[in-house]
Amino acid sequence: MTARSLLAAPARRIAFFISPHGFGHAARAASVMEALTAIEPSIQFDIFTTVPDWFFANSNSFAFKYHFSLTDIGLIQKTPFQPDLPATVQQLKKFLPFDQVQITALAENLHQRNCELVICDIAPMGIQIAQKIGVPSILIENFTWDWLYQGYSDDGLNEFSAYLRAVFAEATFHVQTEPVCKSGATDLAAAPASRKIQIPAGKTRRKLGLLNSRKVVMITAGGVPKNYGFIDKLKLETDIHFILPGAAHAESIRDNLILLPENSSYFHPDLINAADAVLGKVGYSTLAEIYQAGVPFGYVARPDFRESKPLVDFVENHMSGMAIEESEFQNGTFTNCLKKLLQMPRARCHRPNGADQIAGFIASLLN
Description:
The protein has 16 helices and 14 strands. The protein has helices at 24-39, 53-57, 85-95, 100-112, 125-133, 145-149, 155-158, 161-169, 201-208, 231-235, 268-274, 284-293, 308-318, 326-331, 338-343, 354-366, and strands at 13-18, 44-49, 63-68, 115-121, 137-141, 173-177, 188-190, 215-220, 240-245, 252-254, 257-260, 277-281, 297-300, 321-323.
């Protein structure tokens, strides 16, 4: 749809309310802030989330002030593959309906900071705060929590669906990014939104101390802490180097293993681009960043997570990849598939980055 005119003058401050469920929503939000800054360099962002501030600082391409705030519950995880539904329900009961004292306090904060627009991925609290101060809100999503909760036969979760659906519906503008889980009326339908690769693959490899002649596989759990039980099996694959972000408290090189902390000196999209293949849980930002780089993806689906099927369908239709069973990932027998995965070709994407599409849409509204 054609963007509707919003404001007479460019926005100086934009608030971003971001779900802390993994790092996927934060990565998509960062990609939009990065792309919007390229269009309007004067924009200052106020980021409201519990995702650590270093995650946004690592992008190093947009100006922001960080506000540590619980703005969304989403889904509590026991492990990268197993949700904790009772804990999620317990936290939702404390969090919803929104505390109007908190809404008022945050609204006053944004009003004092002359915030002219509120963007939400997919933390619905920001929508109510935007209404409170009379500024437009933009919802960015490929699914919303009410839709996801309905995928579980859990009455405790489903009692919040109607409330959340109503809040999401109040957003002034609605942006959906592929892979979309439930299509609906939108103001913009965008391609996958991804943070941009900053340095060439060869430079990243040299920084890691790797030769271009060696095969490199990156293993990721998608921003959820994970203790890998298959480290010893990886050491046996002596002709392959493995990069494991989030697998150590400090950077460590052990034979053919490069273990990195979550907050490392390496930009995650650069690591993906430097790899010959990526293996891990299929999640939004992992998919989007692999899609941008075009590397083969050994993906592990989550059958009990409703978002998983649309993501898997996208990989199978638009990317180079192969399915890895969760049991294979957990016990390390996926090493039997590595040769096949590494023989798969890159699938370079020639479509626009969804982040640029979203940033263009937002800029047209602000101008």
